[in-house]
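pasting for ref
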Amino acid sequence: MVCPHQVEWGGLVEGDSALGSRSAAEASTIRPTLKDVAREANVSQKTASRVLNEERYVRPEVRDRVKEAILRLGYRSNDVARTLKLGTTRTIGLVIADISNPFYASCAQGVARVARRRGYTVVLSASDEGLQEEREYVELLVRQRIAGLLLVPAAGDHGYLSSERSRGLPIVALDRPLVGVDSDCVIVENEAGMRAMTAHLVAHGCRRIAILCGSPDIYTYGTRLQGYRRALETAGIDERIRIINPTVEGATAATLELMSEPDPPDSICCVSNRVTVGVLAALVRLGVSVPDDLAVIGFDDFELSDVVRPRVTMVRQPAIELGMRAATLLIDRVEGLESGPPRTVTLPVKLMIRDSCGTHESGTQEAQCELGGQDGHDVPDGQG
C-alpha cells in the first residue's frame, strides 16, 4: 500500500526515442524521454541529466532552457533507472502495528507530511503486532531499495535488523524502541502519562483502581503499567491488574468480568483508546453510570472522547508530531544531515481532564495538564 502523498523528483533517466519523430497523436500518448528533453532544449543528454540531478557546472541560461523543455513536454523522470544507478530510491518504508488504529493513522499522516515536503514517497505496511509479519514486510521493503525505514516494533528481538544497519540502512523506531539493535527512537512519556492518570483517580477518592492492560512485553503497555504501579505504590493502594487482549472486544469482556466480582472496582484505567471504547461499551450494557457509579480514564485521546456524555478524561499523545519528528530524523540520517550515535527523542503528553472521573459539573471546560516537558527532550541511546 502506497501512502497517498507522493512527490515526483528529478533523476537520471536514459531513453532512445525521439519526440520529434513522432506524430502529434503519438506524442500525446507516449511519455517523453530524457533524449526528447535534450533535443527540445538543444543540449546533450548528459547536460539534461545534470540539470535534472541539480548538479553544478551548468550555465544558468542552459539550466533554464532545459527546465522550460521539461515543462513543455510534460517530462517525468524514471525512478527505476535512477535506482539502478544509485542503488536506492527516494522511498521511505513505514511499518506500523495496526493500520485501523486512529493513533497510527495520525502517526502516518505526520510521516507523509514531512516526506512530501522533502521529496520522498512513503510505502505503508502493517504488522498486526506480529514479529514474523513485520520481518517479512521489512525484507520486502529492503528488496525495493528503500532509502530508510520507520518501524513501530512488534514485541520481540529485532536482531534481524543488524545486517541492514551494518549495510548502512537508516532505521528509526516509532512509538517503541527496538530490542536487540541500536537505532534512533521517537517515543512519548508513557509512564508519566499513566502515573498522572492514576494519581488523578486517587486524588478524587478512588481506592479500588483497576487497570486493563495489553501484554507488558510490548513497550508502551509495559511502561504504562509501570506508571500505574508507581502511582498506587505512592498512595499505598493495592493493584488490580488485568492483562487482556487490548481490543474493543477484549476490553468489553474483561469489564463484564470485573464488574461481576464481589468487590468490583470503583474506577478503571484504560491503557489505550480501543480499551477505553470497550470499557464504555460494557458499562452501557450493564447500566453502570459514569462517573456516578464508576470512574473511567484512558490513555490515547480520540476524537469522540470529547463528544460522548460524559466526556472522557484521557491522556493525549502528539501522534502527528510523533510521525513528523521520526520522519525528519530518518531523512536527516538518509541525507547525511544527522550524524553521531543513535538517540531517543521523548515527547510530552497531556492529561485532558473532562467529566468521566466525577471531577466536573456538566458543561465545565476541559483542563489540560502537560506531562514531560514543553518540547520533548533527546536522550543519547543507552541513557533513556
